[in-house]
Amino acid sequence: MPIYDAPTRDMQFVLHDVLAVSEAGIPGYEELDRETTAAILGEAARLSENVLAPLNPVGDAQGCTLENGVVRTPEGFRDAYEQMRAGGWMSLDADPEYGGQGMPYLIGSAVGEMFVSANMAFNMYQGLTHGAYSAIHAHGSEEQKRTYLPNLVDGIWSGTMNLTEPHCGTDLGLIRTKAEPADDGSYRITGQKIWISAGEHDLSENIIHLVLAKVPGGGEGTKGISLFIVPKFLVNADGSLGERNAVTCGGLESKMGIHGNATCVMNYDGATGYLVGELHKGMRAMFTMMNEARIGVGLQGYAQGEVAYQNARAFAQDRLQGRDVTGPANPDGPADPIIVHPDVRRNLLQQKSFVEGARAFTFWGAQMIDRAERAGDAEADAMISLLTPVIKGFLTDKGFETTVLAQQTLGGSGFVKEWGLEQFVRDSRITMIYEGTNGIQSLDLVGRKLGQDGGKAIMAFFEMVKAFNKEHEGADEAFDRDFLEPLKQASKDLQSAGMFFMQQGMKNPQAALSGSYDFMHLFGHVCLGFMWAKMGLAAKAALAEGRGDPAFMEAKLATGRYYMARQLPATGMHLARIGSGAAPVMELDAAQF
Amino acid sequence: MPIYDAPTRDMQFVLHDVLAVSEAGIPGYEELDRETTAAILGEAARLSENVLAPLNPVGDAQGCTLENGVVRTPEGFRDAYEQMRAGGWMSLDADPEYGGQGMPYLIGSAVGEMFVSANMAFNMYQGLTHGAYSAIHAHGSEEQKRTYLPNLVDGIWSGTMNLTEPHCGTDLGLIRTKAEPADDGSYRITGQKIWISAGEHDLSENIIHLVLAKVPGGGEGTKGISLFIVPKFLVNADGSLGERNAVTCGGLESKMGIHGNATCVMNYDGATGYLVGELHKGMRAMFTMMNEARIGVGLQGYAQGEVAYQNARAFAQDRLQGRDVTGPANPDGPADPIIVHPDVRRNLLQQKSFVEGARAFTFWGAQMIDRAERAGDAEADAMISLLTPVIKGFLTDKGFETTVLAQQTLGGSGFVKEWGLEQFVRDSRITMIYEGTNGIQSLDLVGRKLGQDGGKAIMAFFEMVKAFNKEHEGADEAFDRDFLEPLKQASKDLQSAGMFFMQQGMKNPQAALSGSYDFMHLFGHVCLGFMWAKMGLAAKAALAEGRGDPAFMEAKLATGRYYMARQLPATGMHLARIGSGAAPVMELDAAQF
């Protein structure tokens, strides 16, 4: 049975030592002192460790079942769901106007990390609900908000996102699901949606589907798409549940992982739907859900890496095989714990340095969202918009890689189900695919975000890193050498890649498209390098001021040095690949593959 | 249902255009003309495509079952096994003295690649048998050879390797299984072995277990280990099956993949065993099986990559989403096949350039084995000994990565079971673990192989690459630029890494151990770069001489250019990591992780 020990100390370090949240000047942040966040994180930790984590292998082994249109979740899920509701976790960062607690998105992210580490498949039920809440909150009418939000916030109702159809995933312009206007102002929705996470289940009393469909007369492609609310049960004027709507689950997908979450084929047979936002402007509304979801998926990536790492670390500290090459570390035992071996350490440090860097990156991003939304900061909004595909694409690629590395630490034990590592690998794999494959993220980054507003956001990013370096260099030779110099080099590589795209851009758009994936990874490394430099500074300050556990702070510095020395050199490789341009990628005819 | 189309044309290209096997001057190779190998490969292709591949998802879904000590393999496995036997595939490269056909190891490898691509879990039954055959053939007595080899060669009996115990995998010195001498010269074997592939099943009449155990009075650690034959059924003097031996399957592992292969807990309760080779010299005999097995596992890695790539390619050529950025490629359809998109091509080319390079590398290695064994070439023997951990470690890491990339090509379809991609990911994952984890391979490479005979083999490798470059440079500017220059740079990086280890070696053994994994990958890239340069030359020659399909040869050159431009730059990153030395890896205390 795998372990999970919520990393609240690491979270507190990021929140207070690195981000100094209570002094961030963001409305709602002033209350986030160490004690308050410790209390919230501590409660979430207990639920995660004691309730959600033990259910994770159960959900994997049992999966969901469909019988006569009814989907049953694994044993224990309903009870856990009730505990989540009762604890108020579903309403944590929702609008108080609709029953939410109004906590910052940042706190929702920290708590979310624990829930995802403990049980990703389970947490998706509420994750999707949160997305539906956000879309209605941002684009719904007053009446829709009053009708749906309080119950979504409470969790007594849940939500879904319905985009994909059998013949179209990425290319939503091909959608065939139809929405015919009815006399009462509602619509009749007809079509089939696939891969609908939490599409049908037994955890909530009602399910509010958000569905993309085409109203006749709309434009071609994505222009003709509108967004609809399609409740499983229609809602009466008094808020009580009415008639069953004509939406049914036609099947469950058999898949590699996240077995505890029901992935449904959803059939809409003239189901009653209500337009959300403007007619034919459904894509815009959907992107509200999608951008939030993408950051949430990036978080899933590293959160699965975190729990996998914890299990790898425990194994490496416990398993006795071979001897330290410099002399026995455990002379009274038959062998030394394998954590003495350099290659086992290399593997563990690759995991640790990624997960901790990714956490800082995600929290920093969440803080930007709060700054944008709560303080109306347009620059923060542009920056998080730029970074969203990096958070999604880089953190899920590396998060999955981390689960694979952790599995490797266990050797053969990593391959058998009993130890749980292989489930983390199977579960985390989906994060690279859903909410837009990571290839699509890289296109979003290079094809859209990079050039937005004349490249303002990426310029601001470079300025920020430069200003950071300027501010801190020269104070500590070792820190300059170990942190700032590698960060400068990596940032220079990123700039060179950006320059290459710009130079090629006009005459050869395929040069940028051929390098987009490498650019996303290059960018991700620079971001994590930047985070490690920030964390290194914070740890140095804490050591100098005698705050916190010195061994913990020293470990932060050492882990940062590892990332800088061993992971950041990847930027040169990505730049070289990008610099080779489109030719190596475009030469072959389709038939020559 | 996934497809499999045996890549016989690619194999013929490596055998004849690149390796020129019929002129290689190796005994037994003179018969390997294009027609002969085409006939053999064609037959193996039919069996792989029509019998083995369709059984692959069946084996995954059904798995093996254990009831009252009897293990049943999935439906259809017995029939397929009989077809393999009847076709003579099990005896292909075995010694004619014992009923084998005496074909080169190289041909066994080419055929093996197809069997593994088609159905890895199934093919392991005969793979293990081959290993047992090799150990007895190399170390058994005349009587043991006569008693066991003919039936192992025929396949009517099968074999296993029994190393791991619950408390020891890598560190075999900790083995507790005991072998007590009996009066008749045999031994009584007592102990428990775990993770025994094909340990018990219903495909063969007898199972010949090769078991590591300690005879009292042997030395400490691995010195006290001996190797034993422990047949499931004892064999009477006339060769007929006698009494059931005291060896039983105590359980089947539930695991991530290779469900069609029975992974057994084996209990030895005073079972009768027969010493193979010298007393207390069991490790040496076991290494015969292990070295062969390691190359076979490397082959599994890229063979799974090959079949995954084929399915990704087919999907990308078929799936319509989005439009070519330079103008519609399929103007009459609703969208273009996704293979028009640069990032999809990048992904496919990463797969394709690896798999084809890995095939050339493995075939080249197999030819070295034949040269060593059939022509008594000591240099070839030393070279393949050096390269074995690279073949195992690099090709399985990258082979697994290839299955993940292929899965990514399919987007959501890659995650659902129906399309079969996720099975390739789950099955190939074990190749990075068994027969020595890839971490162990890197230690074998850096800690043992590199320095052997004063570094003679690695020096010979560098000389070989240098001589190749010297011989071919200056003839074709484009080839120099696209192939030879990158190869030179990569080879220089490898030399620099080797130098760094040597300089550090004396004062800091941990510097080499901290860089061993990166060194293995660096070496692997240089080998594949070398292979691509060889394949590029061969394709150029074929084009110049009007041999073969020009589109095929052009594709080889373009794929090679991709590898050189986009994959080989990884060597610089690995060198940078290695150059950071032991400090980043060794700084943390075990408790600080």
From TrEMBL, chains A, B:
Enzyme category, top tier: oxidoreductase
Keywords: FAD, Flavoprotein, Oxidoreductase
Acyl-CoA dehydrogenase/oxidase C-terminal domain boundaries: 281-444
Reactions performed catalytically: 3-(methylsulfanyl)propanoyl-CoA + oxidized [electron-transfer flavoprotein] + H(+) = 3-(methylsulfanyl)acryloyl-CoA + reduced [electron-transfer flavoprotein]
Keyword Oxidoreductase: yes
Residue stretches making up the Acyl-CoA oxidase/dehydrogenase middle domain: 161-269
Single GO molecular function: flavin adenine dinucleotide binding
SUPFAM superfamilies, A to Z: Acyl-CoA dehydrogenase C-terminal domain-like, Acyl-CoA dehydrogenase NM domain-like
KW Oxidoreductase (keyword) present: yes
PANTHER family recorded: ACYL-COA DEHYDROGENASE, BROAD-SPECIFICITY LINEAR ACYL-COA DEHYDROGENASE FADE5
Similarity annotation: Belongs to the acyl-CoA dehydrogenase family.
Role summary: Involved in the assimilation of dimethylsulphoniopropionate (DMSP), an important compound in the fixation of carbon in marine phytoplankton, by mediating the conversion of 3-(methylthio)propanoyl-CoA (MMPA-CoA) to 3-(methylthio)acryloyl-CoA (MTA-CoA).
Protein name per Swiss-Prot or TrEMBL: 3-methylmercaptopropionyl-CoA dehydrogenase
Source organism of the structure: Rhodosalinus sediminis
